[in-house]
Structure formats: structure tokens, C-alpha cells
Design brief:
single chain; about 300 residues; alpha+beta; Rossmann fold; four-stranded parallel beta sheet; about 30% helix; globular; Lipid_Phosphate_FormReg; phospholipid biosynthesis; ATP-NAD_kinase_N
Length: about 300
């Protein structure tokens, strides 16, 4: 393994925490004897090109510094390669880091852990989801939650969490069940009226909403959560339970496990790791042991 590693930095993550986090992480790595190169792109596309160039050039590891968006971008560069991935999680949600037991908003500690993992060979081979040419580590979301994202992304005011709170209220006002056709592996398609369908490689999205509570990142299977047809009142009662994963016991919720999932529904966008994939239909499959994640010993 080369002693040169690459910090892949989003300076705007976590309302500017990304820029401040890069330095303590880099200091911890340099103290451990690593040469550190920093990659910051002009935009997401440019950053990914630069990250892939570093991987192809043989960097010893790619270390994502930022939030879930940056981790997702790094996955596009390292998935299916032998380049290890480290995560310095300083974003708002940090679902990927939490699901894998990595430090959150502790950049010096995360840098130290990455250095120790590289020296000792501590890594976890985790599965990833793949939809078309996009990889995802946590959850592919569709339905009510993706429509909230759609609406929030169109809104210019307000900013931050308040924007999505308003988007939730607006979508609740317009809420109605969505006709889905769900195909699990090679089984017969399921025709259901649903509020949302989530395909989980990992358990959570949205900063701790455990929509696929119990999903295991190295079992070769997706956990699929289907919230069926329900009233606005039921949705408002059930939704808060998602933070503890207790929503799975509600009668309107069903769960499945599968290696591949095809989702079909009208006027629904799929989001993977919080990033838009495009309109349904979409087919996602599990790619076992697709990335070498640097973890604590």
C-alpha cells in the first residue's frame, strides 16, 4: 500500500464544517506517517472526476470529508476497486457513518481511526446497492419522502431544515396513495397502493430515520419497507416512530428481503443516499462486498 492517501473534501458540508474538518483529519494522518493530498472539485461532477483519477493513479485510500452526499460521491469512485474508503463524517445527517459505527463530527478522531485502520489492515467489506450506474450505501427512497425532496429542491425559500418542514406540510395536504408494482428477485410482481417504498442496504436515511431498521450491510440482501395505503392521520401517527424503527410493527407496514428490487410507479422520483436517481421505474441490485471500508479494530 502506498503511503500517499487522498482527502476528498466537501468544504460546504454541515454548514461549513467540511472545510474546518479537513485540517484536523489531515494532521492526524500526517502524524501517522502518511502523505496527504487534498481533492476539492469545482462541483460534484468535477470532484468525482478528480476522485476517480486519484483512485486510478493508485492512491492508498480515498477519505471522504463531509456528509452523506460526499460519502455517496466517494462510493462512485471506489466501488468495485481495491482502493479502501475512509469517512470523516461532518455533515448534517451522517447516516452512512452512523450505520457503520464510525465517528460523527469528530474529525481528528476519525482521521486517527483511518490511520490506524490503514496500518493494521482493519477494514469491513460491505455491500452496496446499485441502480443503473449509480451505487448507494444506505437507502433508495421513493414515494411520499421522495416527493418531499422533489418539492424541497424546487423551493428557493426558506433554507435548511425549514424548507423541508414546509415541503412535508405541502405534500401532506396533497397526499394520496401511489399505485406501485414491486418485483422482488424473480418473483411475481406485487401490485399495491403505497405511501412509500424504501429499499435499504443500510438502515436509515434523513439523519436517523430508521426506515429499514435492522438492515445489515454485509448480508447480501436488501431490506424493503413498504408503507401501505393509509390516511393522513395514520401517517402522522406512524411517521415519528421511524426514528426508533418501531414503525415496522404497524399493520400498514410490510417488509421484505431480496437481492434485487424493481419499483414501478407513476410520477415518482427515486432518491439514493439523498441524491436523485431519476423517475421510476428503477431496478436496484445488491453488490456483495463491493467496497473496503476502513473501520476501527
Amino acid at each position: 500500500m502506498t503511503s500517499e492517501i487522498t482527502l476528498f473534501v466537501n468544504p460546504t458540508a454541515g454548514r461549513g464544517r467540511g472545510a474546518g474538518a479537513a485540517q484536523p483529519a489531515a494532521d492526524a494522518l500526517r502524524r501517522a506517517g502518511f502523505a496527504v493530498r487534498t481533492v476539492v472539485g469545482n462541483d460534484a461532477g468535477d470532484a468525482l472526476v478528480r476522485a476517480r483519477e486519484a483512485v486510478h493513479a493508485g492512491t492508498g485510500a480515498l477519505i471522504a470529508v463531509g456528509g452523506d452526499g460526499m460519502s455517496s460521491l466517494a462510493l462512485q469512485a471506489v466501488a468495485g476497486t481495491d482502493t479502501p474508503l475512509g469517512v470523516v463524517a461532518v455533515g448534517t445527517g451522517n447516516d452512512f457513518a452512523r450505520a457503520t459505527g464510525l465517528p460523527v463530527r469528530q474529525p481528528a478522531e476519525a482521521g486517527r481511526l483511518v490511520a490506524e485502520a490503514l496500518k493494521a489492515g482493519h477494514e469491513r467489506r460491505i455491500d452496496l446497492g446499485r441502480a443503473g450506474d449509480r451505487w448507494f450505501g444506505s437507502v433508495l427512497a421513493s414515494g411520499f419522502d421522495s416527493r418531499v425532496n422533489d418539492r424541497g429542491n424546487r423551493m428557493r425559500w426558506p433554507s435548511g431544515k425549514a424548507k423541508y418542514d414546509l415541503a412535508i406540510l405541502a405534500e401532506l395536504a396533497a397526499f394520496k396513495p401511489i399505485p406501485y408494482r414491486i418485483t422482488l428477485d424473480d418473483g411475481e410482481p406485487l401490485e399495491v397502493e403505497a405511501t412509500l417504498v424504501a429499499v435499504g442496504n443500510g438502515p436509515s436515511y434523513g439523519g436517523g430515520m430508521r426506515i429499514c431498521h435492522g438492515a445489515d450491510m454485509d448480508d447480501g440482501l436488501f431490506d424493503v419497507t413498504v408503507v401501505g395505503e393509509c390516511s393522513r392521520a395514520t401517517l402522522l401517527r406512524v411517521f415519528p416512530r421511524v426514528y426508533k424503527g418501531t414503525h415496522l410493527s404497524h399493520p400498514v407496514v410490510t417488509t421484505h428481503r431480496a437481492r434485487s428490487v424493481r419499483l414501478e410507479a407513476p410520477d415518482v422520483t427515486g432518491y439514493a443516499d439523498g441524491e436523485p436517481l431519476g423517475p421510476l421505474p428503477l431496478t436496484a441490485g445488491v453488490e456483495p462486498r463491493a467496497v473496503r471500508l476502513l473501520v476501527g479494530g
